[in-house]
Structures
1.
Amino acid sequence: MMKKTHSLITGLCAVAVAAGACVLFPTLAMSDNDDQALITKANALFKPLPDSAALENTPLTPLRVSLGKALFFETRVSSDGRLGCATCHNPAYYGADSLALTVGVHGKQLPRNAHTVFNTPLLIAQHYGGNRASVEEQAYKAVISPLAYGNSTNEQVETKLSQLGYLPLFKAAYPDDAKPVSIENWSKAIGAYERTLLTPAPFDKFLKGDAQALSKTAKLGLDTFINTGCAGCHNGVTVGGQSYQKFGITQDYWLVTGSTPKDAFKGYDKGRFHDTKNEADAFMFKVPQLRNVAVTPPYFHDGSVATLPQAVRVMAQLQLGKQLSDEDVSHIVSFLESLTGEIPADFAKVPALPVAAH
Amino acid sequence: MMKKTHSLITGLCAVAVAAGACVLFPTLAMSDNDDQALITKANALFKPLPDSAALENTPLTPLRVSLGKALFFETRVSSDGRLGCATCHNPAYYGADSLALTVGVHGKQLPRNAHTVFNTPLLIAQHYGGNRASVEEQAYKAVISPLAYGNSTNEQVETKLSQLGYLPLFKAAYPDDAKPVSIENWSKAIGAYERTLLTPAPFDKFLKGDAQALSKTAKLGLDTFINTGCAGCHNGVTVGGQSYQKFGITQDYWLVTGSTPKDAFKGYDKGRFHDTKNEADAFMFKVPQLRNVAVTPPYFHDGSVATLPQAVRVMAQLQLGKQLSDEDVSHIVSFLESLTGEIPADFAKVPALPVAAH
């Protein structure tokens, strides 16, 4: 519950006190104080979204961004002709795919859930295992991954892109390159596009001082979120996504989530261990960002939990050893809903892709 | 080649003739006459797109159209959670899917090519075999098809739609129905949406009298298209799509297209025969519409031909016993490009779909 802070009084109340009348509007005065205190408390843990997620010295030129957007929706580069970035990062589902476990080429189920693409350039790394340093590296490795796009060499991808008629678009976006159609430029262009996909939310307005941007229950939820300890991991500009943590501190996660062993991991998913082979990384996962969490179910690295209230309960129990009341859960969910952002105006507009030359 | 028509002269030339000067601009005069003659000739075979493809007495209300649009992009109703109307009718590929053979749930390849969705309410029927009478019937049968959406009963679909949070949208669109969430309303709403998807093209302007709407080569191509006999089948408002014809009149089609036998047909695709079991229907297919043909490769019922010039050559040979010159092919392709229409403004904008209630 929100801690009631009475130590500061508003100017209005100060005048009222002087007139002996402050008792007439104590709720208003308390609420304003609480709001200010909560804004201050929140700013110690979180940051509003920046205006841009561009790399230093790498301007997001319109030609690069629009090429990146075309490539984001392009499926003909995959080995079954059906998979593109937008397949797992679908505008219909807030940049995720609504599935528990995402799917690669030829309909093959992969062992983890797909994150939303929004705000990902601001994360510590990409994927639940953090095995991609940047959105650019993710785009690069996905297109030559046998599991994701089903290609295995750079040349395969570059030949397809040329045949599809992309040369003029690459040339325009990277005019100084001797070889414009390259996987390097594929990854840079998609990265440029993804760096435009930020989703400012009511919570950002609140952090910047607009106390009315959050409902009363959302504010109670934010306070509960902080006081319960959630913000120990879910902090920073993306409310998570800035560190790695063990999933299942109080007990094995699958006892609570209903997760099942996966063939790809020869058992339960041990997170970063599968990449590093270091026992210290067992069950360490990137803490997911919580921006847009309310609109991107299902939850966790394997999508094993379907609803947000249940995900909140599971996290409190597994990570903090706490049983939340229904009221606390409901308030926290209300706060998390204030992280649902405005989708970039152009994101949902699918571009008409080049038709291969006759 | 375009027939030169000299019988009519323009007012300008009449004045010039009176002054004995018509020889100074014979090309202009001939061209104007030719254009008018070609417009007249074309209007005897083709019709411009109507303003609306609404069913009689069934208004396309905004609530029905927007529900239909959401359902068009909805994938969670399919048994693998990945297939919706927009999977095969993708805005990125002008309402088709760019594949030779389209794909159903669980990545299973189907035996025929997916048509573009544009202008389909105006066709004689749906599918290459014409086994769906209307866009509404197509939407109805697809969602309970084990091959397409992977469902088998109406109840399965209706339960999923309710769980996904669609009840308020159905109620708003069909307020008088005792049971708003029904497959009947699924099919009506998607039909309402698809009935808005018309793509007026330069050729429509030409038919309405604007001779400049088509380039000179497109006009030569239109004349060649008619004189060669293509318009014998590819006529009407959708330049095809109004009748059934045997594919492969001069010889078996697979000898020219490179088509292969399909398991689903226990051999080569015999078109409507597979539905009717009537030998008279062997190799009878719905004549495809040619609107947007230049931007929806690959071609034919099995996508066996990759490029438009080759498709034009194959058709002339197989259906009309003619070998077209490269020049004729190039002109016809130029005419076909004038059938590429304006995409409805809102079509490519993917709606954010309901998030299942907590």
Note: The radius of gyration of chain A is 23 Å.
2.
Amino acid sequence: MTGTLYVIGVGPGDPEQLTLKAVRILKTVKCVCVPKGREEGSSMALNIVKKVVDLDGKEIIEAHFPMRKTKTPAHACELDTKWNETVETVLGILNKGTDMAFITIGDPTIYSTFFYLYDRLLELNPLLPVEIVPGISSITASAARAKISLGLADEKIAVLPATYVHNIGMVLEHFDTVVLMKVHKVFDKILAELDAAGLAGKAFFISRAGMHDEEVVRNISSLKGKELNYFSMVIIKK
Amino acid sequence: MTGTLYVIGVGPGDPEQLTLKAVRILKTVKCVCVPKGREEGSSMALNIVKKVVDLDGKEIIEAHFPMRKTKTPAHACELDTKWNETVETVLGILNKGTDMAFITIGDPTIYSTFFYLYDRLLELNPLLPVEIVPGISSITASAARAKISLGLADEKIAVLPATYVHNIGMVLEHFDTVVLMKVHKVFDKILAELDAAGLAGKAFFISRAGMHDEEVVRNISSLKGKELNYFSMVIIKK
């Protein structure tokens, strides 16, 4: 019997945003896998879980995940080797019949690296038992803290990585709400685009929703030139 | 001291998808408000909560909410009166210093009627203490059951009510994933549009995600002419 891989969304930061189901499964499994700290989210997922579930005695696997940007062919090769090791490690544990929880901040279906692993696992074992356990996504958590609706009645919602900000005017012609993800590195450019489109006044900036150092900023021009947190987004409402 | 209005997303159906925070607040408050059973979601929200939290001794308010479609001017007037009663009842309880939980299926920021009430409450008391507690949305819960990612890396996501299906080809030129909400009444039309655009094979139908009678259908043509559940959506992935 192959073990089950539970893919668990642990929410955007507040441990109280874990679901009852996530907590039950995390208490039961003997092995927890988390992507290794290349992105800020990795250690964060483990820290969220630690505050609610006693991890003593559980095997914790910090696994390497593929990066999209590589420096040199040698670097790419090294990463590929590590990635193969990750896939082998995960499959090795599941093949022994051990259940495993793969934890990911937010929700697994919203920009989580898990799906890179999933594609590879399915190639090797198309019948692998996998259950995806939803978590609170940073998108709805941020809207909740800004106290705004993402959509009502017949409204349309667009979710875009910040790199598409140059199309923001076009998108807002067709959509009522636009959520810009991963804004921290390109915020000044976003601000300039929104200013040019006359939309800066309709935007909200939210960082680390629901955590002790969260920021909800209504006058986003005040953030110009500032260093911003990795967990930041902008929501524009027409 | 005015009481706090906690707006609580209770998830799409599975009581285990309640968050720890939602459960804590629901156990504490003395009064729970739920929109009256005009839409299928109302009694469902209460049923989800009942399975996890003992509601004995709590005041349950089933409140009338405005409808967008009214039959006659007299009907519109009657509904308006009831709506005013709802606003007065809620404000009356909060003004006595009693905390209240307003429960809504899914997440409060995703197409929840709560925001109709919120606008009205803010008009009457701009300083009303309101806390929005995120819930698992039907969107991510459905993607989890279909085992698909809604977005990865630089992908773009669009969320549309099914009424916009005639634009689906245009939207999919610019977006990687399209989520069509509220498809139950117009499914055959959606199927025809997707067929015409050559996209039916890239669509998933998900109904009542995570519940005992859930349906995840990969060959959506098989649903033609069938009566579908109110809690149904279609996700198209390019």
Note: Chain B touches chain A through 56 residues (CB under 8 Å).
3.
Amino acid sequence: MSKAEDVGLVIVGSIGLDTIETPFEKRESLLGGSVSYACAAASFFGKVGMVGVVGTDFNDEYMAVYNRFGIDLAGLQQVEGETFRWSGVYDADMINRETLATDLNVFEHFMPIMPESYRSARYILLGNIAPELQLHVLGQVVSPEFVAADTMDLWIHIAREKLVEVIGRVDMLTLNDSEARLLTNQYNLRSCAETIRQMGPRYVVIKKGEHGAMLFGPDGLFLVPAYPVAAVTDPTGAGDTFAGAMMGYLAQQGNVSDSTLRTALLHGAVVASHGVEAFSLDRLVTLSPSDIAARLVELQAMMAV
Amino acid sequence: MSKAEDVGLVIVGSIGLDTIETPFEKRESLLGGSVSYACAAASFFGKVGMVGVVGTDFNDEYMAVYNRFGIDLAGLQQVEGETFRWSGVYDADMINRETLATDLNVFEHFMPIMPESYRSARYILLGNIAPELQLHVLGQVVSPEFVAADTMDLWIHIAREKLVEVIGRVDMLTLNDSEARLLTNQYNLRSCAETIRQMGPRYVVIKKGEHGAMLFGPDGLFLVPAYPVAAVTDPTGAGDTFAGAMMGYLAQQGNVSDSTLRTALLHGAVVASHGVEAFSLDRLVTLSPSDIAARLVELQAMMAV
């Protein structure tokens, strides 16, 4: 049974300290990782519980950021060692990027543990992390209403079998267009989505970055455009932010009707578009519900005929 | 004054016999060129006049295709020599392509002449063709209500000055995203559109192929998605088809209000999505108004929240 202090949405994923270089600027040791972006985005819509791991170098300033979003940290483990670190450099197009270094550190032996207060959560987002860890989380939840999983090319390459097992057990898979093609060995995105849906999930969201996203489900197709931001500062975590806001909205609404799902994707697009306007969670920290509402109105006006 | 036999929409552009190779098939001497695609697409919405040139090798079968669309051919010149020929090969993504050969032939000395019955046309589409020829057409029209021009990277490279003159004299410029970036030397598409609008046109349409198009104008931004076709056979001419259908719809409606423009772009997306399902004009030849109407309903359902 759900208790008052139980969280409605739980997100698992990576926590990283990122070094990011864009054509305009280089920044070091930025708070990042899929669960950081996703929880921050989801927090605008209700209580969200985080499952992740950090090292002893994860200082109070980073913790303070999580606390500013009111994220429930009962599932956050702090262990001996260094936090996961990633560094990458973006091309001039601010889309393609090269990974310069990946240091797993405390991630290497991470085993996600769901606190008791998370186990009856009705909404679960398995953020981008090794499929084996996603499965481990799935094994600890009690009949959630809606589980979404995100993934990336790395896992398709090195852990396809486990990933297919995850895909077979979730309600929605989110991934980007090139990953959908890699996973299915097909090019046309409708065909990709159809193939993935046959692997299990009722819903597939194909993310296309600045070109928006496509929702495939039993009620047909929904095309959500990306909000065209005037200046992208750092696209890192945009997909995680999108997924987090989408799941936060669903948990807030408490249903996954076609109309709610479509509106959830719009919220994902809006929050993600704010997120890329600054490095790390910097823009999300200052973001207000009225900023989200205003841009939602603006985006819907751009879609209206 | 407009007479009963006058056409409401005139389109100028290239007529070519194309040799096209996709990853799946190679086809030769296909009827193509910007004005062929644009006029065929526009013909679903009313009478359209064609301004172009062909050689003596342009046989009755090709002419019969134009006649099937009911295109007014008073502005079509047939001269001694061979028709313009283009050949290209598409990458596996069916988007990027390499031009293998371009033979200007009769195009080299082409000077577009507007028949008397075209000169009072209220809607003009300057299809993709040398800016100098677009200017020549502009010099022969009498106060049209709405002039749109399309262009391509070639003219930005070799005829920028004349192209800028064209841009300064039209109501709308349509071009694709990479061309917008090339023309303005900016990356962000909102900035590109703003810069182009400062060069003259009230409206800029940035075409993004399978990712749709963006309309920038005094009433804000409209994001039209591409209809996701199940199988692309040949993307050649999709941009011309889009522009032709859009202008055909505007001429049919007889106004360029924001709402009409948005609906015109939707029609452009729908007709273009049909066009890429076959080589040349093959799909447009079999297309019916009810096919267009049905896919328009389908596309709008994919945009509805």
Note: Residues 9-303 of chain B form a domain with the UDP-N-acetylmuramoyl-L-alanine:D-glutamate ligase fold (CATH 3.40.1190.20).
